[in-house]
Amino acid sequence: MSTVYLNGDFLPEEDACVSVLDRGFIFGDGVYEVIPAYGRRPFRLQGHLARLQDSLDGVRIPNPHTAEQWQYLIEKIIDANEGEDQSVYLQITRGAAKRDHAFPSNATPTVLIMSSPLSGAGAELLKSGVAAITTEDIRWVYCHIKAICLLPNVLLRQKAIDAQSAEAILIRDGLATEGAASNLFIVHDGIIRTPSKGPLLLPGITRDLVIELAAQNHIPYEEANILEADLTRADEIWLTSSTKEILAVTHLNGTPVGNGKPGPLWERMYGLYQQYKQLLREGKM
Ligand code: PDD
Predict the structure, then answer these.
(1) pTM here?
(2) Ligand 1 centroid distance, CA of 178 (Å)
């Protein structure tokens, strides 16, 4: 049975209730974070909390907690739930109020934190890589905000699933921006490339670490546009996220990427990422 935090209380998930008038339910009016924990230690917590603050500022919801309070609540939820490795989900909505698009004058934000065991991609997927499709990005233009209104992402991801693929890589004005729930990297002639941060993609915490690891290990990388056509020329394509970590895309729209197997730079970066996680587990981060 999992324990969640809701508006000041820790309680069993099945006892946690919010109002039908909650603006998260009615309008998708809220923001969220997904924070992995390894060895029960939250991963890159400061980065996640900084992005949470940016998302809250972006939708003008006051932050209900200080960074210290968030850390305390997140650590308590990790302690209260099963699994050495967990995926912590936190969500803040503008709160419950009579339905009206305009901001309510006196609603209290709803705060939910929950966690589930995190199992990673699994040996088979790591070995084979995954299939992806490309499709038009139908989302809004504030993709840097981690907003809970994810209907376009849901439809895009399902389109990938319907095509027996794991993820949809999104194209806007001829540029590949990110996946429906992940950031995008390609490797071309030994150089790793990922699009620069901006309003058309989520500034992923995993993305930041991959760039950091590339810099520390003298692996050439650049933050630059990826044209749709660059995807078909790429030697490797990767997707990154808190739950997927770094996954190799080995088939795109039914065609092999490179030789159709995870590439050597993916293998190197995946290894560096696992080392980083291990240091965190041992309390050395
Ligand atoms: N999604 N881009 C989008 C659109 C995402 O939804 C995500 C993560 C990412 C990667 O961000 P990060 O590395 O910080 O996880 C990029 C989470 C995991 C989700 O919605 O479940």
Answers:
(1) 0.97
(2) 10
